[in-house]
Amino acid sequence: MRALILNFLQGRSSQCESKKQHGAFIGLNLPLDIRGTAFQQRVWQALRQISAGSTLSYAEIAKRIGPPKATRAIAQTCDANRFAVAIFCHRVVKNDGSLSGYRWGVECKRALLQKEERYL
What we know:
Elements: H1 2-9, H2 19-27, H3 38-48, E1 56-57, H4 58-65, H5 71-80, E2 92-93, H6 106-119
Parallel strand pairs: 1-2
């Protein structure tokens, strides 16, 4: 997965040659069979609904899916996400908008967000 993300960031993915293809690549509108608890499934579904170039805080996601004080559980579920290209945990930030943990590194998270902004 890390190699796929790095290729994407460096523009070496043939799927990223145009804006239209880029949108399809980061959207991956495919049915996924990802195993997790009911709570994890709700979190991951909420993450898939965050638009490219947008971010939500852990607290905002907790308020959307409940319980509203489950920010740590949201963060742990993001960390458990092994499908970064299809489930957009890089689009989740702290309440103040700053970046925090990302399974593949905060620099990778920053680069993904910057790349998305350039394509919008």
